[in-house]
Amino acid sequence: MQLQQAVRPIRPLLLTLLLLSAGCAGADPPPGPPSQVAVAIGDNQQAAAGMPIPIPPAVRVKDSRGTGVPGSVVRFSIAYGGGYVTGDSVITDASGLARVGSWVLGTRPGGNSLAASVDGLSGGTAIFATAVAGPPAAVRVVGTLAFTELTQHPVSPLPTVQVLDAYTNPVSAIPVTFAVTLNSGTVTGATVLTDAQGQAQVGSWTLGATPGQNQLTASTSSGASAVFTATGLAGPPQLVATTPTEQSGFLAFPVTAIPRVRVTDGVGNPIANIAVTFTITAGDGTVTGATDTTGSDGIASPGDWRLGAGNGASTLVATMPKFPGPQLGFHATGVATPFTIDVRFLTTMSADSRDAFVAAARRWMQVIVGDIPDQPISLAAGACATGQPALNETIDDVVIFASVVAIDGPGNVLGSAGPCVRRSGSRLTVVGAMRFDEADLALLQNTGRLTATIVHEMGHVLGFGTSWASTVTQDIGLTDPIYIGPEAIALWPSFNASLQYAGRPVPLADVGGIGTRDSHWRESVFHAELMTGFIEAPGVPMPLSKLTIATFKDMGYDVDYGAADPFAGNLMASAFAMGPAIPLNDVVQQPLFEVTPDGRVRRIP
After folding, report:
1. Can you say whether the dihedral through the CA atoms of 342, 346, 351, 355 is positive or negative?
2. Which of 153, 173, 434, 466 has the highest count of CB atoms within 10 angstroms of its CB?
3. Per the domain annotation, does 388 fall within a domain?
4. What's the number of domains the chain is made of?
5. Region class of 20: left (phi > 0), else alpha (psi between -120 and 50), else beta
């Protein structure tokens, strides 16, 4: 009886504990810390390049039990492919979901990826999408835009276009329609689907019967289009020489004037867009840029024509591959010369500019008449000039790299010129460089002063004012610098008879910046002589005098004084009435390297 009374109070407590335990077993535990993140919505979508994907992707953040974790910060960033996102920092909702504001793909077709990371959680996840070309936005001509052909003949090559989207990506499988929109020509294969490169080519385009302009338009249903033009000729075009067909020059050296032809119709009008091929048919010379297309002036020319080393005669023939029959021959003969200047062009030159460089080299080859020892050399690319190729050869006698580039517009810095590599013993130039501002070059060419200016600059490359030994100059940098080389001093009395200069011989430039003073003759004394630091007015001769030639004799060259131009001394001052001289504003470059007879190159300190 007493035992039952002791047990009875325990039963309500056990019942209460059981009920509490049952209640706790039915409730969800709170989420734990973030343990994983996975893509929930919007993976592996496709959209046009540069456009947002249709469904903004979302990720879900979960704890270790797989329960969504609210309140976590998710950051979205571009992994690859380009493009951008908006709403890139998002807090997960009650279910652990976070959705980016938008995802705009990159502008190039291909794979794109978006990275999603969670604050406090190492690693993350990636969302993928594919960008494809967008709708057609433009039609671009591929290859030939303007043609010339006989009337009622098909053009060649076939007109071809490329369809592009707004970001210039090729668009495939787009219908392109070709239609004649001027004259009465015909086409075949008028509607063509673009290929994988977005290109479509008409089956054929035959010009109309009426001579003159024809037009073909390629268009898409989006309205984008491109237009081809063609000139219909009533008869075969003709070739007319605009430079001498007979020339003489030096072996292993470019001809004086690059051959030029004008393509004309039956009444002499120039014809554009005609391919002309130049072929050597006799002799052992070489031609570069053998095919050229006529411009609006109807003129075409090869890049260069160099005579061979072992044959005194060479023939170059111009033909038009599209119009067999007409041809025009050019003939050149050459003689051996002991001293050769090899001008190598680093930039594209007009035919007139090329001729000016060749004429300047020929002028110095008339002055310097003795061979100098061949020089083996190995020189790294770009050591002397921008774009200069590596050298690994034996040079006879001088190589000059020439380029025409944009510098600072007309009337400022003309360019730079000078030796780059000199021989270690004689100090004579092996490799030099000349660089001209294209704006100044055009001005000099239009005013008839280009060749004289290049002769001047080439004189610096060969050593005038740049390779003088210290023993031939005096008082450099002072108020009265002079040149005292023995050959020039010996010539000075007879030369000064017309100048009547009372100062010390031989006066060097005492004004101008670096590269002008001390490295030119004094303008106030020599006036229009070629090697002063000024370019004379148009029409004023700039003679290369015996005194300038004497400095090259002092340097160790064999020279021909008979090659000097007549020099009238103070009478040259009267030429100033024709217009003022202008400063050359050239940068005279000193040698950078020296090479030993066995080819070892070292930088000059």
Report:
1. negative
2. 434
3. no
4. 4
5. alpha
Q: Do 61 and 98 meet the contact criterion of CB atoms below 8 Å apart? A: yes
Query: Does 26 fall in a domain?
Result: no
Burial label, 433 (beta-carbon count in 10 A; 0-12, 13-18, 19+):
buried
| 131, two tokens | 């960008």
248 domain-assigned? yes
Q: Indicate yes or no: pTM above 0.90.
A: no
Beta partners for residue 276, in sequence order: 292
What crossing angle do the helices spanning 546-555 and 486-499 adopt, rounded to 10°?
170
Q: Are 278 and 305 in contact (CB under 8 A)?
A: yes
Burial of 204 (0-12, 13-18, 19+ CB in 10 A): middle
DSSP notation for 208-274: -SSSEEEEEEEE-TTS-EEEEEEEEESS--EEEESS-SEEEEETTSB-SS---EEEE-TTS-B--S-
Nearest CA to 424 out of 190, 246, 595 is that of 595
Instruction: Reduce the DSSP state of residue 154 to 3 states and report it.
Output: strand
Task: Using the predicted structure, report yes or no on whether residue 7 has a pLDDT greater than 70.
Answer: no
Query: Do 531 and 498 fall within a single domain?
Result: yes
Q: What is the pLDDT of residue 540?
A: 86
Q: By residue range, what is the domain housing residue 201?
A: 138-233
Beta bridge partners of 339: none
Give one word for 410, left, alpha or beta, with left for phi > 0 and alpha for psi -120 to 50.
Answer: beta
- Of 21-30, 545-554, 559-568, give the lowest mean pLDDT range: 21-30
Enclosing H/E stretch for 354: helix 351-367
What is the Cβ-side half-sphere exposure of residue 186, based on CA atoms within 13 angstroms?
Answer: 4
Q: Are 31 and 85 in contact (CB under 8 A)?
A: no
Respond yes or no on whether the N-terminal peptide bond of residue 43 is cis (omega within 30° of 0). no
**Residue 534 corresponds to which tokens in the numbers above?**
């000024």
Question: Are 80 and 150 within one domain?
Answer: no
DSSP letter at 569 equals G
